[in-house]
Predict the 3D structure of the following.
Amino acid sequence: MLDYSMLYPKTTSSRRAVSMNGMWKFQLDEKGEGERNGWPEGIAGDQMIPVPASFQDFFTKKDIREYTGDVWYETDAFVPGEWEGKAIWIRFGAATHRAAVYVNGVKVAEHEGGFLPFVADVTEIVRYNAKNKVVVKVNNELTETNIPCGRTMTLADGKKMNKPYFDFFNYSGLQRSVHLMAVPKEAVYDFDLTYELCGSDAKIAYSIQTTGDHPVKVSLYDADGNEAAHSEGAEGTLFVQNAHLWQVRNAYLYRLVIQIMDDAQVVDEYEQEIGIRTVEVKGTDILLNGSPVYLRGFGKHEDSDIVGRGFNIGVMKRDFELMKWIGANSFRTSHYPYSEEIYQMADREGFLIIDEVPAVGMFESLMNFAEASTGKSTAFFEKETTPVLLKAHLKAVEEMITRDKNHPCVIAWSLLNEPETTNDAAVPYFKEIFDKARELDPQKRPRTFALIMNSTPDKCRCYQFSDIVALNRYYGWYVCGGYEISNAEMMFRKEMDGWKALDLNKPFIFTEYGADTLGSEHKLPSVMWSQEYQDEYLEMVHGVFDSYDFVKGEQIWNFADFQTTEGIMRVNGNKKGVFTRQRQPKDVAYLLKKRWESLPLDYKG
Ligand code: GCB
């Protein structure tokens, strides 16, 4: 069990959560001398930057954008006197990729992994009714022993540089919200929910962990605020009559209120919006509330102008509006768990999420997108350091599932993106990861991973772990693009026939397919990179999807153009977006809208 609570920060009758977002002091530490120079007590300089945000795109110096190493942040936190007696926490939505936190000069937390929250318990350190100095050292170096994978090299001029084994810019810093929290010493720590539908009623089995022994009370309120069910005890069942189900693009949310009681006194209170729904895989179907669903939507990124990977509430809103407009019903959080606010919005809007752990780059290549179809093998899971990587990966799986398990929107876990699967060494590695996810998820949601082009039916040794087989395929782009598209289609169909012949009796979905397209380019007849070609490519791909009954979903790569490292394969970023980075439609958006709006929800069900 994790040694801190993952519950989202909330103010309730017993808790306080105050945002620490805003302008923080900021300093690069090129020589790695921060500690020696006493920065834990206060950093040098007077530069300020916004939190949350990636630090890279504010500045005009390339040395800052490409900076690799430690950066330091500092702010003051005023802790109200009336909070004395409670536990005081500072909660980071994420710090990419690792951080050490100091309060009043004392180290209070360290965390490894850049896309999941952690808490610093500062109860014993803080001064009440006074300002407290909060300093955070964040490091953004990539390694092969943590996820996402890559390496850090040193250039001839002595500067360090990140070399990602993945195709997105290594944005970093304090990219998500920071909260100062006061929580009762006896508190709700975690809870699990499972659902069963019985005719028009529903049973919600719950189990609640607290840090004390006082009795627990649970109440469920409907959307009008009326009590729909209640129960006593840390474990039990809520019986909901005439339950309103959480449906695709038609969400119904109940409010779950958990209270720890000392006679009539509330010791702690936590609440969360939940949705009643079941998810399962049966044969080749993905079932939500027992009915087949065909997924349509995107692989996305948290990526936008200026703030980079920083959580941006306006961009989130625009993205959901565009997804609704185009008729999407789902997305994958490629290639890392997203900000918690995005899941809250998906819960409310009825979008289905395939939640992905940051296990990307598990194929040693700086251009895996180009090398993925060459048959190249890098013996990635046979390194001396593989056990260290596995440990970090398991920890991220645990943090992700603990954080996200109670969101109705989360229908599946994606446990790796495009790993190497063609060597036997991958098999025991996969087994540990997949078993862990099954053990941790009270709802036993389907597990998947995204298969790289090299992972073909005859070569992949790991597809059997997936409850839903997810393919990333680029026939017509990386393989036989342009006028060779008829060969691409032939090869694509040949591979699909190979999967069909295996008769796995599992649903398949496409978690990636796409073609780089410049929003500025039109060409008649088409050439690759023109908007006309993106349309042609999609017509071909859709024909293939529609020919195989076991294909139960399509999530195009990518929702929007996004930033990558510079290089000859990328024109200031990856341009496979259906929308530009500024969130305006390319031509292909209208083609997709037409298709997705016309496909029934239970297409091929
Ligand atoms: C992939 C990767 C994704 C890349 C994409 C591409 O297979 O999973 O991260 O951005 O291909 O466009 O090459």
Notes: The radius of gyration is 24 Å.
